[in-house]
Amino acid sequence: MNYVLITPARNEADFIETTIKSVCSQSILPRKWVIVSDGSTDQTDEIVSEYTKRYEFIKLIRKEAEKDRNFGAKVRAIIVGYKEVNNIDYEFIGNLDADVSFNAEYYRSVLDLFHQNPRLGIAGGFIYENNNGIFQSRQFNTERSVAGAVQLFRRKCHEDIGGYIPLPYGGEDTVAEVMARMYGWEVRAFPQLKIYHFRPTSSANGLWKGKYSHGLKDYSLGTHPVYEVLRCCSRISGKPILLGAFVIFAGFTWAYCKRDPRIIPNEFIRYLRKEQLQFMRSSITNLFKGYSAY
Question: Which of 111, 153, 98 is nearest to 26 (CA)?
Answer without folding.
Answer: 111
